[in-house]
Structures are given as structure tokens and as C-alpha cells.
Amino acid sequence: MNQATNAKPAQMKKRRTITKTDVQQFLLHGRAFIALILVTVVFSYLVPNFLTPANLVILSKHVAINALLAIGMTFVILTAGIDLSVGSIAGMVAMIAGGMIREGVILPQLGIIIYPHTWMIVVLALILGTLAGALSGYVITRFNVAPFIATLGMYYVARGIAGLRNNGYTFPNLVGRPEYGNTGFEILGAGNFLGVNYSIWLMVILAVVAYIVTRRTPFGRHVYAIGGNERAAELSGVRVSRTKVIVYSISGFCSALVGLIIASQLVASHPLIGDAFELNAIAAVVLGGTSLAGGRGSMGGTIIGAFTIGVMQDGMVMLGVSSFWQKVIKGAVIVLAVIIDQVQARMQERIALQKQQEMAAVEGS
Amino acid sequence: MPELSPILDAAVVDSDNVILSAENITQVYPGTVALDDVSFHVRKGKVNVLIGENGAGKSTLMKILAGVQRPTSGKILLDGAEIHPRSPLEATRLGIGMIFQELNLCDNLSVVDNIFLARETTRRNGLIARRLQKQRARELLRKLEQKIDPDELLGNLRIGEQQIVEIAKALAQDVRILIMDEPTSALSAAEVEVLFRVIRELKSHGVAIIYISHKLEELMQIGDYVTILRDGRKVAEEEVKNVSLSWMIENMVGRNPATLFTREERPLGGVLLKAENLTLPRAGGGYLLDHVSFELREGEVLGFYGLMGAGRSDLVECLAGARPQATGSIWLDGQPVTATTVLERIQSGFVLIPEDRQHDSLVPTLSVMDNMLLASLRKYLRGLFLAPAQEKSATDAQIKDLSIRVANAQQPITALSGGNQQKVVVAKGLLTHPRVLLLDEPTRGIDVGAKSEIFAIVNRLAAQKYGVIFVSSELKEVLAMSDRILVMSKGKITGEFTHQEATEEKLVAASAIGHGPSNGGNHHESGN
Fold it and tell me: How far is CA B66 from each of CA A30, A360, B21, B24, B306, rounded to the nearest angstrom?
């Protein structure tokens, strides 16, 4: 009798508190998506024709560039690292690729010039970007240099090489020549499949692959573990250094891809391609709910974050917001994102505690 | 029974000498209740001793008093008025200073800069009064009878000297209440004597000392009042003159561990692991491990006992491949082990359950399942991808086998109690299918029930022909669990005892070889 009366309030209490915790957790996990819906609603209200298919395709094309960088950046940030060099690597790769199309590969010893096929140029450029990332990763792991410093170095070096390649000048008109067999570079930027630009397809494919890699492969699990507790990962047999080098290589690969896409879209390589893109990429990752402290976050969130920034940016342009105000707002959003990151970490801790107390209450009753 | 305790407390507390008191302090961490409704009284001009086993909550309580941490509930009274120290600086302003167990000093600053850190003496123009500070530092160090140059860089000092600086730093603050958390752990016998003289002088000036130590003989010598914590609860408070050593141990342990952890007799197999001349150099010269050799048989639980820094953890980390600088030879099943990295050692059959769960074992951002599978992920691959069904069945089997209490395997690991977290770590190790289990203080910071469960698991594994190396600082546990015990001191094996031969006295004596005597009675100085 006594037991029955005791059990009831305990059960009711349990149901109520779990619901509260669940709501909080839902809001925390869904915060990136909620933010995206919010900005979309705001801009579709302020800007006529914002939600038309044509505009959405243009928007996605803009987003694709940032999203590709942000996918690589997510891997890096999940290991509690940072990659400041992505924009510069994009610029360097674009200049090297543009140079190969315009001037070929000169072998002075043999006195000949080789004009590689376009696909070879693309592959070489991707390898170059990957190696640049790998070098950052190697410096970070082998010499225990802070990721911020190592990639800051790469940021300058890669941008410098981009300028050096053609003395600061642009490689214009990258259409190639049929007799050299290096035409078709512009297709990467301009080509469509099912009416959707290649760059958008690339974003979708990479996002899906990255999602599966983070969720369903040992490598992905290792990335999360390193960000959560590097020492524990190490003692569990995770090859931490190797994993980190791969992570920065992935980021370098994504950067190279972006450099190629932009050069192809412009049909020209400019040494300043990708300038300051790293900040947009970091902002997308953080807006997507990935913790800068590492170990927490998701690819899905990053894509949502990239779209949030894209919607804001395009929306402000269409609204005619001055570029100065755009910068002010973008800056505020980045800081806000980090604040949210901090607050949510604390809240998650509190919720974990709350959950535990709920469990204890259940066990005790 | 509970109704009696307030009266009992009142009798002891009654003397109106209480200057600082913590009332009904509760501290909840994700995973554990560190303190459960603990009250603690500090008397003026006395040495107030606080003792308890590892994980009993002593350090947590001190951190709360020193303003490092805020309690979940409960209050702190200073001279009868409630205070809320929010930072160590605020606590110092209230007259509460603390000497931390893990030294809180900056290697890159000079001794004098360390002593006056965050409370620099300034001249009227706002610049640091260097000469005055140096003079005061010299006086303090003279009082501690040390020949330490105030201008020396802290990083260049011996660890014992650094501890002296930490003490000087606390003395420089003119505190009314001084918390000392294991102040003698790195001191030689002569230095301990000096410290005790300083403590007696402070007492005569009315300073209240809170003294935490594992060296019980030392407490009998210097303590006035003793408070005992066990598993986050206060179990006793008494005047030191009324109590005996055995009373303290009994209250600290609260049980006879020998009855909780019963070792099963089992036949031992052949030699499973043989280690020869394991050597690990110390960064500043000398050895962490000094040519250590031993054998481990199939189904054997081999205990390693020793004091802090004796090299036991270094030994198991070497075996686990976590110390690349180590040299020496290892044979497993008669085959030389050539693997060097942690991963390769795991693949050849070694697995380490590290001492520091939070720091070395758990990934707090991952779920119970992801933590458990981290070391054996390749076993659940189907093609390139992890197969969720296999991951789940492996996890569920371990949860059932080790009776880990979780709501579901997707729960964050931080939501588990310490004991259950430790079982997840053990499960992570077992899933790699090891031959040799390296358990480094596997029962640290977990409650009694979980401890005896962990030991039941160890017994079962030994019966299944695993070789178990069991490192522990708890005499009773190591005596109860081990088939054979090796004692280490200063990187060497200084004693070997079978289960039948081993006694507490023998282990303690062997663990002190190479150290100076702790009671300062006879003065054969240690090697350094």
C-alpha cells in the first residue's frame, strides 16, 4: 500500500523531467538547423523572389565553395585542430593549374615544354593541395607545433607561392588549345548535370562521403576520439599522428578542389583566389555545431552552417546591405557562434548531470 | 543511528576554537558523488588532520575551502559568517591559503616571482618592489632552513625544493588557515623535520592548519584533531591523542578488505611473459625504471606494490608500448616481442587499464559504446564500414558480462558512475582479446561495491588463463588479490613475496628501500 503511493509520484516525476531534458537536448542538437530556418524565413520575407528555384541554384553554387572547404575543416576541427591555410592553398593550386594550362610544364634540362591533358592537370593540382595539407599535418605531429602556427605558416607560404608563380599577375583565359589537348578546363565550373552545376554535385558527393567516413569507419571514430581525449585514444592503440596527417591532407584536398572550381568558373587564375576563405569555412563549421575544442560535431551540421552563411550573405547582397555592414554582421555571427559553442558545452555537461540524477532517482525509487 | 551523530559531533566541536567550518557540503560530478553531506571543522592553532582512502573526497573538500571549486550544496562558515570564496585569490584575501598536492608553480619564473605571484608587493608608482620581495623571500627560505637562491628559475630546482617553495609561497600570504595537501610526499626526512618545526611555530601564532597525508605515522606525530572521510562521507571526527593507528585504518577502510576480495586458489600455467632489463631513463638523469626483470605465468595475478613514483606505472606503460624511450627485452609465450607502438602491443596481446581514468582512458565526448569499442574497431568492419549490428552485439555482451549499469549503450560516458566507467574501460581492454592485462590502480576512485566487482572480474580472468599484472598502492588490496607480489622502489624491484609470505610490514619495508626513514629518528640520508 505504502509502496504503491510512493511509486506513483516518482514515476510522474521521472516522466516530466525526462521530457524537459529531451526538449533541451533537441534544441541543442537542432540549434544549427533552427538557425538556418530562421534566417531563411527572415530573408524570404525581406527579399522578394528569394525562394525561387533559380535563386536557390545560384545560392547553392556560392555555398558549394564554402561547404567544400568546411567539410575538410570539420575533420580538422573534430581533432581539436584548425586549418588557416585552406584559402591560400586554393589560391596556390589555382595558380599552378592555370600556369600548367597556359605555359605547360617546362623541363629546362631537356629544353622541352610538356602540355599535360586537362584531367592530368586536375589530378596533379589535387595531389599538390593534398601534399600541402599533409605537410602541415607532418609539422604538427612530428615537431609538436600548434596547428594554429603550422597552418598559419602554410597560409603565408602558399599565398606567397601563388603570387610568385606569375609575379602577381593573373593567368587569363584558361580555355587551353585543342592542338595541346588541354581544353575543357572551364567545364568544371560551368558544366551542369541534370541542370545542376558540377560544383554543387561535388559538394553533395563529398558531403555524403564525409558523412559516411565520420559515422561508419574506424578512421572517423578515431578522429572523434582524438578530439575528445587524445591521450586516451593513443593508449587505445589509435595511431594519432597518422590520423592527424590524413585529416590535414583531406583539408588540403578540399582546398585544392575549391581552387580548381573557382579558377574554372572565372576561366582565369588570380593569385588572390580564396583570400580569407578560411574564416568563412571555420564559421560554417562552428555554426554547424562542431565544437572548436574538438570531439563534438557533425558533417550534417557543417553543411547546414555553410547554407546559413550563404543565405545570410546572398540575402544581404540582394537587400543591398553595404559591404561594410556585411562584414560587421559576419564578424558578429562568428563570435556569436563561438559563444553558443561555449554555452552549449556547459549546458551539455549540466544535462548529463541532470540525466544522471534522473537515473539515480529512478534507481533509488 | 544517524540521530546520534549530531550529538557526537557537538561534543567534539564544542570547543569554541572553531574558526572555519564546512557545513553539509555536497559535491556532485558527472559520474560520481564526490562529497555527500560532509561537515568539517577547523580549529584555531591546531593541526586538523583529514584522512581517507584515494577517492574519499579529501582533495575535493579542500578545493572547495580554497575557492578552487564551488560545492553543489552546503555552506562554508568563517568565524561564524558565511563565505563564498569564488577563486583562490578571494580565499587568500579571507585568510585561507593552500599548498596543493600537485605543485601549482610556474617553472618559467624565478623562486621569488613564484612566491609573490598574484600578490606582488608594489611601490607607489605601481612597479614591483623587487628588493623588498627578494628580502622577504630570503627570510622565508631561511625559516625553512633551505639554501635556495630566490633568483633561481623554479624549473631548475629539485622536486623537493619546489615543494619547499610552494610552502614558502603559502607562508608569504600571512594566512590564518593553511591547507596542506600531502606536503611531504617529495620531502626527505630532514626536510620533513623542518616542516614540522615550521608547523609548530605557525600553531603557536594561532594559525589553523589543515593537514592531509597518507603517512599515518606522520599524522600521529603532528596532528591534533582527525577527521576521516570514506567514499565521500564523513565517518569519524576525534582528537588525535584519543585514537590509535589501527583505529584510523579501520575507519578509513571501513571493512576488512580481505573479506571482500577473496582470492581463489588456482593452478598456474607456464611462463606467459618474461621481461628482462626493462630500463627507462629519467629526463633529468637517473632511471624511472632501473633494469627491471620478472616473469609472469598463465593465470597468475602478479601484484606490484610501491610508493608514488616508485616506477610501477612506468613499468606497465612500458609493457603497453606507451614509452618509446624504454629499452629491454620482452618475451610472450617464449617468443620475443618486437612490437613497439601501442597499437602493435595491443595486437600482440598486451592491454593497459591506465591509472588515471579521466585523463588516459575515457573520451568524454563519446558514448559508452564508442568508448568501449575504441581499441578494437577493426573487429567490427564489414568491408570498409563498421557494422552497427556487430558493434552493438559486442557492446551488449560486455555490458552483460561485466554487469555494467547503463540505461543504453548510446549514453554519454560521463553519465556513468566512476565504477561503471571503470568497467567500460576494462571492457574496452577485454575486447582486444589480450593475453596480458596491465591493471594500473584499477580501483582508484570507485566505491566499495564496484571495487569488489572489479576484483571478481580479475579473478575470473585469471581463471581463464589471462596473465594479470595488478598495480596498487592499497596494501590490503594487493595482499588480498595477488598470487605473488613484487615491491618496487626508485625504479627497482626491492622485494618479491608469495601470497603466503607477504605481510603488510614486509611490503612497507621493501617499498622504503632507498628512501630515507620517514620518522626522522635515525638519520641515514637517502642517495640524493
Answer: 39, 29, 12, 17, 31
